Amino acid sequence: RQRRRRKSLAIAYEPGQGDGAEPPRVPWEPRDWREQLERIREMRRSRDAPVDEMGVQKCYDSSAPPQVMRYQVLLALMLSSQTKDQVTSAAMLRLRRRGLTVDSVLQMDEETLGQIIYPVGFWRNKVKYIKQTTAILKQKYGGDIPSTVEELVELPGVGPKMAHLAMHIAWDSVAGIAVDTHVHRISNRLKWVKKETKYPEETRVALEEWLPRDLWKEINWLLVGFGQQTCLPVNPRCSQCLNQDICPAAKRL
């Protein structure tokens, strides 16, 4: 009996263990994520979600000088916060009809600006942020917008999601993943984060730890449209989703 007990206590070390060496670290990644991503691409193939037709990338004047174009991108992002794409697009069209530049906004009084952008969400606050940010751009950046996330988030009314999208759209530079409520919600539903995250910034950090960098720019566009059409905040359309069989949050009927 003593012999058998001694034998059961024998420890079999993995290669590299037992001699003080650390075992090789295997990077974490979500289960089935590649297949889930490919199926989301398939569902987004028609590109007919509101973000595709009226998103920020469609709101600026592509024929404007680069500096003006970048300013319009930033303004569209500021207006888009907690506002549907349709409403943002309409507000941007009204602004552009008046000649949307740094100088034109600086010359506009707050009441007029408010009348133009209404009914975007929190329009009164956005009037103040737009006026403040535009003045800073004129004084500090010669009328252009900053070219780094760190400088962008220092502007009044500009958050991390807007900053990363501004880098993507205005500067064609990928500094990080733009995480809005859709990306945040879907990443948690698919378990694309090690543990549940409460805020979009937490989700951004968690995604950037494992998601290949060449997908960082695409992921926002994919998941926003997917969240608008299929993976809705309330009553997601799981029966219409190609990922129903491999989604941890799917309602299987």
UniProtKB/TrEMBL annotation:
SUPFAM superfamilies hit by this protein: DNA-glycosylase (SSF48150)
Region Disordered, residue ranges: 1-28
Keyword Hydrolase appears in the UniProt entry: yes
UniProt cross-references to InterPro entries, sorted A to Z: DNA_glycosylase, Endonuclease-III-like_CS2, Endonuclease3_FeS-loop_motif, Endouclease-III_FeS-bd_BS, HhH-GPD_domain, HhH_base_excis_C, HhH_motif, NTH1
Occurrences of domain HhH-GPD (ranges): 79-229
UniProt-listed Enzyme Commission number(s): 4.2.99.18
Record carries keyword Transit peptide: yes
Cofactor: [4Fe-4S] cluster
Transmembrane segments: none
Keywords associated with the record: 4Fe-4S, DNA damage, DNA repair, Glycosidase, Hydrolase, Iron, Iron-sulfur, Lyase, Metal-binding, Transit peptide
GO CC annotations, alphabetized: nucleus
Pfam families referenced in this protein's UniProt entry, alphabetically: HHH, HhH-GPD
Entry's Gene Ontology BP terms: base-excision repair, AP site formation; nucleotide-excision repair
Domain of life: Eukaryota
PROSITE patterns xrefs: ENDONUCLEASE_III_1, ENDONUCLEASE_III_2
GO molecular function, one term: oxidized pyrimidine nucleobase lesion DNA N-glycosylase activity
Catalyzed chemical reaction(s): 2'-deoxyribonucleotide-(2'-deoxyribose 5'-phosphate)-2'-deoxyribonucleotide-DNA = a 3'-end 2'-deoxyribonucleotide-(2,3-dehydro-2,3-deoxyribose 5'-phosphate)-DNA + a 5'-end 5'-phospho-2'-deoxyribonucleoside-DNA + H(+)
Family listed: Belongs to the Nth/MutY family.
Classification via HAMAP family: Endonuclease_III_Nth
PANTHER family in the record: ENDONUCLEASE III-LIKE PROTEIN 1 (PTHR43286:SF1)
Protein name (record): DNA-(apurinic or apyrimidinic site) lyase
Source organism: Cinclus mexicanus
